[in-house]
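Q: I'm writing up a methods section and want to include an example of the input and output format. Could you take the sequence below and give the corresponding predicted structure tokens, formatted cleanly so I can copy it straight into the document?
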Amino acid sequence: MNSSSSRHGVYGTPPLALATVPADARIFGPFLPGSEDLAELQDGALSTLVVLAPAGVLERRYALAQALRVLEPGGQLTVMALKDKGGSRLRKELEAFGCVVIETSKAHHRICGVTRPAQVEGVSAAIAAGDPRRSETLNLYTQPGIFSWDRPDPGSALLMEHLPALSGRGADLGAGLGVLALAVLASPKVTSLTLIDLDYRAVRAAQRNVADGRAEILWADVRTTELTNLDFVVMNPPFHDGGAEDRSLGQTFIRKAAEALRKGGTCWLVANRHLPYEAVMAPLFAKVTLQAETKAFKVYEARK
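A: Here is the clean output for your methods example:
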């Protein structure tokens, strides 16, 4: 069991076959509900840290910088990533912070070991580049690494074009920054809306973006949540897990939506054209209607 007094940490879900994680290690990572936020630790709070580095450049450098900041001088840092998901860049990025790196390869991962030097370079700049901020483009609070963090998502935009004024109790599954939620809450007939996302950064941003007393924002995994007797569900379901395409993820979202809806309730969703969701929806809903389509996306209304 991890302890808040432990000086060992693990960020994300590194393969345990590739690194040793102490049994009392504190758990960090935006996709692990209930875990701690590395950014909230004091400088030098840890003596060891094992990190599965994110694939995105800004969020990876941000995670590496935070890792070096929270390690005491002489502390041990182990960082790994798949070679095609940022692993090939890890050594140079760590060296740019002033670290001496010992690099190995195993199971398609690059693994870098570092003893935290007394002085590190560029940490503040990397943290600033990956910190939460307000986007002038989106007019929303956001952070690098969140889905569609710096530009409007065309799928969500298409769904909002065709979304009717909803009413009653509803949920936004995989709510992200709260873009769909804001469109839904524009209807005064909506009495409550539960926003759920696995990414704590998105949850934190949505808490600032969706300033509405009817909204409840949860940091949770949609796959394990239990919602019932809802009038509607909206979603732009994800189809990537850990960077790899996972069609079953979106299919699970659809099943959870069906479980959450009352008889006669509706699910509005947008999906990439190539995803085979029709066969999943057909036995779960009384009626499935294709409401819009483009070369890239389809919008469905599915009624229980």
